[in-house]
Amino acid sequence: MTDNVNDNYISRQSKALSGDDLLNCIKGMPALLFRIEIAKNKIEYLNDYQIDGLGSNTFLLLKNKTLSKELILEDDYPYYISFIKATQQAKTSKIIIRIKTSNNEVRWIKLKGSPNSYNPGFYLGVMMDITSSVELVNNIIKEESEKLAMINILDNPVVLVNLETKEIISNNNAAHELFGYSINEFSKLKLNDLYYKGYTREMNKVLENVIFDKKWEGKVFFRRKTKDRFLCNTCMRSFRIKNKILLSISIYSVEENPNEQNPIEQNLLSDNYSISEQEYMQDLLKKVSSVSEIKNILDLFIKNPIPGIKTFDGIIYSDIQANKDRVTVYSSGATFSKPYFGEVFTYEGSIAENIEQYKLSNLIVEDTMASIKAIDWALFIPAGIRSYYAKPFFERNTLRSILILCSQKTDYFSDSHIEQYDLLCKPFIKGLKNWRKLQRTKK
Fold first, then answer.
1. Tell me, what's the pLDDT at 301?
2. With bands split at pLDDT 50, 70 and 90, how would you rate the model's confidence at 62?
3. DSSP characters over 274-334
4. In DSSP terms, which residues pair with 255 in a beta bridge?
5. Cβ of 86: how many Cβ atoms within 10 Å?
6. Is the model's pLDDT at 385 over the cut of 90?
7. Phi and psi based region of residue 91 (left: phi greater than 0; alpha: psi -120 to 50; beta: remaining)
């Protein structure tokens, strides 16, 4: 009876709020509300709240990593990076950081966010000033709880096990994805549910080593919910929390045998083009066949606009070497007063990382100024690029190249024109092969 009364009261209260009332509530919130379009790394602010001492820089804190590094205390900056990664991976996250203001004061800022359960493509978050509650915060953040919470900000799968009972007491989202169990299912598992039964004797030896040496590293045969087994490079550590000895299992790589994929031509669409479009592609293929320098190849694309598509302000070729944390950039076009030619950027925060993470066949960014990707602020925005279309190319299951069409206007690229943009794919592959052949002869 009581529940029904409460439900009716809540229902009446909800209906009493008009659209204007709700909008005024959001505008008046003593915190900055935001949402992020995950696949595009695009952020939107839902109100105009500013943190004392930061002013308009409040709105750049989640966009511009360079500025953020200047504002955030050095010890707290890793927490900020962990939050940015959580937004990109659609993971729930909550952190507290300290920021230096223009008055040389230190403000305590809380960032909290999670994926939108009603619209999975978006991430919802809030930024608030909790300086007045700092004493309470200091009492809450204890070393023991920190150790348990840390696994949620790690990218690799991590599982915590009670060594005495072998019960799983905690795990992160990456572990859910790897093993295939839901949150409720994971909470009912024990350690022996995670590894291959034929590995029991070896696992007992591993646990003995961990108990005496506190740490063990090596390969373990685990198994998924589907009973499929897989071999992993694993690190296990033991530590004590609240009179319990816990085992942390961290998995760093999975050794599988994916089917060998075709070379970069696998990215091409079928030639379902009009006669004029096919003639354009064949003509461009003929022109690029005798060109070997990457700058001349990009210049050729700029000078030969796609039929029915306005010309681009710039074109970028990104050579991806993720294993070396390196993206080498070559550019052409009027937007680049100083063309990028062999400039090196880190893989982390790059378009390549974004594409691989979400297995995107392409990426359209409508407004770089709304982006939180590091590369947009390091490369595109300084060059005056406000929107772009990025097309990835894979070789032997590895992302190796990205062709990026750039514009100085926002919202320049459209999903409805993707097939037209991809008319450059075959000519690009041909030119890329020529250039790589030239590079080999120079060595």
1. 94
2. very high
3. -HHHHHHHHHHHHHHTT---HHHHHHHHHHSPPTTSPPPSEEEEEEEEGGGTEEEEEEEST
4. 231
5. 24
6. yes
7. beta
Residue 122: phi and psi, rounded to 5, are -125, 150
Q: Tell which wins on pLDDT, 238 or 11.
A: 238
What is the tens place of the pLDDT at every residue in 110-136?
999 999 988 989 999 999 998 877 655
pLDDT band at 227 (very low <50, low <70, confident <90, very high): confident
**What DSSP letter does each residue of 145-212 carry, written as one string?**
HHHHHGGGG-SS-EEEEETTT-BEEEE-HHHHHHH---HHHHTT-BGGGTB-GGGHHHHHHHHHHHHH
Asked whether 403 and 393 are in contact (CB, 8 A), the reply is: yes
Tell me the Ramachandran region of residue 34: left when phi exceeds 0, alpha when psi lies from -120 to 50, beta otherwise.
beta
Strands 42-45 and 215-223: unpaired
- Under the banding of pLDDT at 50, 70 and 90, the label for residue 356 is confident
Instruction: Report the 10 Å Cβ neighbour count for 142.
Output: 9
Strand order in the sheet with 93-100: 42-45, 32-37, 122-129, 106-115, 93-100
Q: Which strands sit side by side in the sheet containing 229-241, from one edge to the other?
A: 168-171, 158-162, 244-255, 229-241, 215-223
**Nearest CA to 58 among 104, 111, 96?**
111
DSSP 387-430: EEEEEEEEETTEEEEEEEEEESSTT---GGGHHHHGGGHHHHHH
Least-confidence region, from 35-49, 173-187, 247-261, 331-345: 247-261
> Tokens at residue 275, please?
């006669």
* Residue from 246, 251, 248, 247 nearest 221 by CA: 251
Helix (H, G, I), strand (E, B) or coil at 257: coil
How distant, in Å, are the alpha carbons of 143, 160, 185, 219, 326 from that of 171? 18, 6, 12, 20, 31
